[in-house]
Specification:
The structure holds two protein chains of two kinds. Chain A is mostly beta strands. Chain A has strands spanning 3-5, 10-14, 19-21, 24-26, 31-38, 44-50, 56-58, 64-68, 73-78, 87-95, 98-103, 107-112. In chain A, the strands form three sheets. In chain A, strands 2, 5, 6, 10, 11 and 12 form a six-stranded mixed β-sheet that branches. In chain A, strand 8 (64-68) and strand 9 (73-78) form a beta hairpin. The radius of gyration of chain A is 13 Å and the shape is globular. Helices cover 0% and strands 57% of the residues of chain A. Chain B contains no helices and ten strands. Chain B is globular and about 35 Å long. In chain B, strands 2, 4, 5, 8, 9 and 10 form a six-stranded mixed β-sheet that branches. By secondary structure, chain B is mainly β. In chain B, strand 6 and strand 7 form a beta hairpin. The chains are: A mainly beta, B mainly beta. At the A-B interface, strand 5, strand 6, strand 10 and strand 11 of A face strand 4, strand 5 and strand 9 of B.
Chain lengths: 113, 112
Amino acid sequence: AQSVTQPDIHITVSEGASLELRCNYSYGATPYLFWYVQSPGQGLQLLLKYFSGDTLVQGIKGFEAEFKRSQSSFNLRKPSVHWSDAAEYFCAVGGERDDKIIFGKGTRLHILP
Amino acid sequence: GAGVSQSPSNKVTEKGKDVELRCDPISGHTALYWYRQSLGQGLEFLIYFQGNSAPDKSGLPSDRFSAERTGGSVSTLTIQRTQQEDSAVYLCASSLGHPGYTFGSGTRLTVV
């Protein structure tokens, strides 16, 4: 069965520092991978997605993620965070054989001024 | 419409009452999904509709939960005899087909 693990429930970084949010997945075939962001009181917004091809995916708001099949990971990165990046981030996995997407439990990002 | 619309945005109900939550997907989107987001639990898949196919109900937590989609468009999620553990944000999403959804803003359900 497909599953997603986000090992960090909370992460705190200083404004301007780099960020990496971890995501590991389990899926029996070629995965489709996603990162969504949810700001307080807001809905979920798609940051980026990976289907195939280049394993380094660029998204909105300066985020990128790298698919590493050997590690079953899809970590999200940003070189320099801004206070407005404080939010909850969800990694998700789906695939050609599964039309539904399964989400991780999320990582809440806190930004120090 | 321009986005996925959910109503009501907030619902407070008494334990034991039935509630209906509505989702209006993006026009032309063939797939519609319901998820539940409880505090600290991430997003839990509930049910999925694709065109005229039988829905995937594998995520519904109990037989008190049901959903329908009329005319391949609007969907209603019904929770019968609500319990306090049903309190959560119920999110709807739609897509043209895999992969990637557009989410609505959700309905926050509080059972008192």
